[in-house]
Amino acid sequence: MAETQNGTPAAGRIGTYVALGDSFTEGMNDPYPGRDDVYRGWADRLAEHLAARHSGLRYANLAVRGKLLRQIVEDQVPKAVELAPDLVTFCGGGNDIIRPGSDPDALAVEFDDAVRRLRATGARVVLFTGFDTRNLRSGHRIRGRAATYNMHLRAIADRRGCDVVDLWSMMSVFKDPRAWHEDRLHLSSEGHRRLALRVAEVVGAQAAGDWREPWPPLEAADWLTMRREDVHWARTYFLPWVGRRVRGRSSGDGREPKRPTPLPL
Predict the structure, then answer these.
(1) pLDDT of 263 strictly over 60
(2) Pick among 3.40.50.1110, 3.30.530.20, 3.30.450.30, 3.40.50.720: CATH of 16-212+220-264
(3) Do 30 and 192 meet the contact criterion of CB atoms below 8 Å apart?
(4) Where is the SGNH hydrolase-type esterase domain (predicted)?
């Protein structure tokens, strides 16, 4: 029998898959053609890979952009438990980590309890570390907190019997700027495509394509172009983010999950 990444027997038939999280799992910024503000993302792509192997697969995506870990745990985890899924992907805490003063130790306690509740349903649960932010612009300021949180997540996965998609180790591929949207926070469509292939690999649903495929050569940007990109990023993404923080608002306020009910693709 095939084995999972943590050495436990691989799951059999997957009838229901539920994705939990924030904008990362909602799929920003990987839009469906012709559908403004409706995103596909790695989780939708993973569901497509799974459906090719598990006929009749039902898929729900409860993720909502901007959500903190507490909100994911309070709003999404109980719904996932009620759905009794065979497979859950759970990624949360990234929006907490990027906030000044966040405590990765306290986040880990909350995350662990949520995983305990999910595993109690008998579901196979897949967790995600954070990316290594060293090679991302403005990422150095949170790298220490992110690394601490990652170690907690790995310990939780070991303790609870979960699989792990180690995004930190994938930076040999994801350090390329083409893997990222211009907001410097979310993956590009190609980044989402590659990540879906990696998650499919972890859960034993290998699909056509290799997430490790080398990127075509990229001509380095000159200094002036990079500074113009910095100004555009600050005006378009960073300052609005700061404004929302000051007002106590979130990009996900009032927004419902894009796929709240498990349905066939």
Answers:
(1) yes
(2) 3.40.50.1110
(3) yes
(4) 19-194
